[in-house]
Specification:
alpha/beta; 8 helices; 226 residues; Rossmann fold; two-stranded parallel sheet; 4-stranded parallel sheet; 17% strand
Amino acid sequence: MQGANVILNDIEAGLANSAVEQIRKENGHCKAMQGDCSNHSFIQEMVNTAVNTFGQVDIVIANAGITLFGDFFTYTPESFFRVMEVNLGGSFFLTQSAARQMKNQQDGGSILLMSSVTAHQAHKNLSAYGMSKAALEMLAKNLVIELSPFKININAIAPGATLTERTMNEAEYEKTWSKLTPIGKPASVSDIANAALFLVSDHAKHITGQSLVIDGGWTSVSPSPY
């Protein structure tokens, strides 16, 4: 990550360790931390580990989230509150813990939240998920007031259809979204990562409270895969 020292979290230890190995093969410095990102104690542990391992916290990317599809009329409280606990609670309290550390360091910092195109356009069976992602964009806007005095900028990115290890295992995913995306194909992981890298870099220090949609033009026309 362009010279950054990284603390990488996943709820599955195997996935976290595998990602760390790949980063290290590319001469990156990375430490895996397995745990539930919606757990407040674990969130603080991650921030403390970053400080103890690398000296301070300069960048935070709140990337963890879950998608639980379901019809609105039958959506369960268990599913609703789990989506909010991870997508909203995890991101909110990671931002809070990291921002406190940045404030104490007095060197500023950059925070990036992970939204979604479903925060901008309706998508069947994703009412709770879309609501959680829209809330994150409002969080980025609202925190401009409280974080700017400490030279901390905060933004969000909203990816659309993206080819990942998970989606590439879904039958017809790439074919379907290539047809639905105006630019002719879904995003690659690099498309998303390059935008994230810019927004947490020194080149974007004057950008804050903004949400960047990365979807190949899908939200302009919004055809449904159903």
